[in-house]
Amino acid sequence: MAEALASPDAPFLLGGELPVRRLGYGTAQLTGPGYWGPRGDRQDALAVLRAAVEQGVTLIDTADNYGPGVAEELVAGALHPYREELVIATKGGVVRTSDSAWHIAGRPEQLRAMCEASLRRLRTDRIDLYQLHRLDPAVPMADQLGALDELRQEGKIRYIGLDTLTADQLEQALSLTGIASVQNRFNLLDRSSDAVLKVCESHGLAFLPWFPLANGALTGEGAAALDGVARGHGATRGQIALAWLLHRSPVLCPTPGTGSPAHLAENLDAREIRLTSQDMSRLEPLASV
């Protein structure tokens, strides 16, 4: 780890030019169990999205298969017309047929149809960041990225991102076209994508870690060492986990999701926490991978 800690307040330049605040908001929790169907009252979901933006969030992360379609429609319902500084990221390349069925679909014609559908649901002419949700092993990477590159050349996508891949795959993708972001699982307890993070750092790519709060694992006994650091900052375990990401690397842009206004405010308060080198050293052994 570098001696100098990343600043939690410093914006990230997506694609080297588009500034975003590094702590964003993810929309998966606005859908039902298994990211299927709606969750709760629609007006509550709209209110949380608006509150996120009012509290300074400039990066909203969603996906066409959250619902499916539900999350994107909520984003548009709450935030359209979009503020100039707001960056909307969505994902395509996976088809849902039930709350437990995910089907990778990376043929060029499928990706084009998915992108066009997202444009309609989001009520926009151009998606700021369009991320390939999974690489399709049955389709050459060049064909998948070629389809997205065509959409970018047509002005329907501003930047291309990738979700869940290895460092070698990322290097291969970079040899084929411009990539602005990566989404892999990465958090205080799970650092198995550290090699991917290093590639992102070397190329100036945003890394949007999914399950930034370790998907509930922070409450386990194995994470008890968090308590000492949290007490020192008058913070919760979750806030320290988010602050750790913001300090760990200047390219990490976590987008935790919630349907609760109180939890949203708690998450966003992590921007104010200043971890010391000693704090980071105490947290380092928590990694399970």
Give a short account of the largest sheet: 7 strands, parallel
User: Nearest-angstrom radius of gyration?
Assistant: 18 Å
Going across the biggest sheet, name each strand in turn: 3-4-5-8-9-10-11
Please report the number of helical segments. Answer: 10
Protein model, in words:
With 289 residues, the protein is of the alpha/beta class. Helix content is 37%, strand content 15%. The protein has helices spanning 42-54, 70-79, 108-122, 141-153, 167-176, 194-203, 226-233, 237-248, 261-268, 277-283, and strands at residues 12-14, 18-20, 25-26, 59-61, 87-92, 94-98, 101-104, 127-132, 157-163, 181-183, 206-207. α2 links the parallel β4 and β5. The mean pLDDT is 95.
